[in-house]
Each structure stands twice: as structure tokens, then as C-alpha cells.
Amino acid sequence: MSIESEEAKKKNAHIPFHEKEYTYYKETNQYFPFLEVTVGSDTSRKRIVALADTGCTSCIHFCKSYVEKEGLTLGKKVNKEPIPVSVADGHIINADLYEVTCEIDGNEQKVIASVIDPEKFFEEEKKEIEIVEPLMGRGILDNFDVTFKGKKKKILLFHSE
Amino acid sequence: MAYTYTEENEQDYSEDYLREKMKKWGILKDEMTSRLILASSSLNEIFKELIVQRSGRDIYEEIDALKKRVQYLEKRAGGKRKLTKADFVVELNKKELETKYFGKIVAIDADSLEVVGIGDTILEAYNNAKEKTGKDQFDFRRIGYSYVYRV
Questions:
Q1: Cβ contact, residue pair A58, B149, below 8 Å
Q2: Domain harbouring A98, CATH code
Q3: Domain count of chain A?
Q4: pTM exceeds 0.90, yes or no
Q5: To the nearest whole number, what is the mean pLDDT of chain B?
Q6: A111 in contact with B at a CB cutoff of 8 Å?
Q7: Helix crossing, B59-79 with B31-55: angle to 10°?
Q8: Which residues of B touch A120 (CB under 8 A)?
Q9: Rounded to a whole number, what is the distance in Å from the CA of B95 to chain A's nearest CA?
Q10: Residue A115 within a domain
């Protein structure tokens, strides 16, 4: 459910409802389009940042270690058995899916969040896996018009016309 | 007395001299065979030299190590994810599902082994399935793909 009415959204479609400068990463000397988003269940919510990733087909994607570190309370688990998810390096990893409430600047929606546990998957190889930031994928981004202003290092979200 | 190789006495064991000797001892029957034998022995020497120069170690050891690596990678790529009941249901109805719902998400009830919800997104398939069965946990597959999401 959104706070703004549908009519008002259409009227203001040319004005970005969310605007954020890219986040600078000192280690790699690079800028990334992170968005601020509130996620959680009906009982508990937390504001986090998630990387806007058009290559991610999920709504919002977490690594289990991040969920534990941030103490996020996700909603109801909707899968019974593990769900296969293809990760960037070509592996197919098992994931769990949760019904999550997600809010960006007053625009609230129920989405499905995927949570993978790469530490468990790569257990045999004893690889060092970093805690990866969450990804905001096409499941959410496709509901809006998104502009990546690469030169100005800004990301803008508009309501769809 | 053992023969010691020097540049000077290399002349004594030239190709012509050896061929003559081999003919005399009955090892070589004709000129062509003798040339072939000498050529192949020279080629063998060259190959051995090349292999050692290239690998810098035992080539057979290297082949064994590579075989083991390939076996490990094959095992990891093919055998890591255990198949579930949902995979069985999709495989059983593959032809029909791919004809009707290619690229769509299906929700599968693991108890009744039936497809109970279909949608463009997991949320849509989940809501359909929930409405139809009254249950709240299902398994999901994207028809025609081995994964549901790509991240």
C-alpha cells in the first residue's frame, strides 16, 4: 500500500520521488548506486542500503551472513524445499524465499526476498567469502522509471507514467 | 673400456657409419628402412626434449593432476545440488509445462506433487497457490530454466 494516491503519482511522474548520490567505495575507488530501503516483516523493520542491480532478477537479494549481521527480521518463508538461484559466477545455489515488506520513500510493497548461504555451499573448498551488500533487483526496479545519471553519479526513481 | 662422448670421436659414430654397421649386423635390410629408423629415433629425442623444456616437470604427473582437476570440476558442476520433489514434478510434466508456460513461475505443492499456481513472478504464483490450496509454503520453478532467479 502506498501513501501517495495513484492520481498524485501520475501527476508527479516527472518529479523523482527518490534521488540518491552514488556511494563512494574507498577500497576500490569506485562509485555505486545504492538505494535506501526499509525492509522487514509486519512486526519489525529496518532501514538498509541495497545496490540497484539490473542484472538481478530477484526483488531483493540477501546473503545469509548479512541478514544475521544486521539482525533483519524477514517475513514468512514461502518455500518448503530449497529454490535454485543462478549466481554471477555460474553456480546454481540453493536459496530460501521470504515474503518481505519493502518501502522506498513512502512507496511500500510486498515482495519476495531471496536469501542464499554461499558459506554453506562452498564449505568443502573453504573459501573466504566476504559479506556482500544486498541487491535490489528487477522485481522492484521494474515498478518504477529508473534513471542512472552516470556522469553526475546519481540515481533517480520516478513513478511510472 | 667405456665409450666417452667427445666432439672429436663423434665422427666415428656418424649416421653413415652407424647405418653401415647396422646393415652389417643384419639389423637393417635396406636403405629406406634404415633412414626411417634413424629419423624416428631422432624425432623421439626431439619430442622428449620439447616436452621437458615446455613443462619443466614430469609430463605424466601433470596429466594425472589435470585429470583429477577435471573430475573434481565435473562433480562440482553436476552433482552439487540435490534434486527435490519439485524437480521431479517439473520433469514429469516437462513437455506440457514448456508448451503452455515457458518462462513462467510455477508453484508446486510437494505433498500432492501438483502444480498449484502459475505467474510471471514468484509473488503472483505464490498468491495463486495460496488461494487455491489454503497452504502457505510451496516450491517454485521457472519453466524451461534450471534456476528461478539470476543474481
A1: yes
A2: 2.40.70.10
A3: 1
A4: no
A5: 81
A6: yes
A7: 60
A8: none
A9: 21
A10: yes
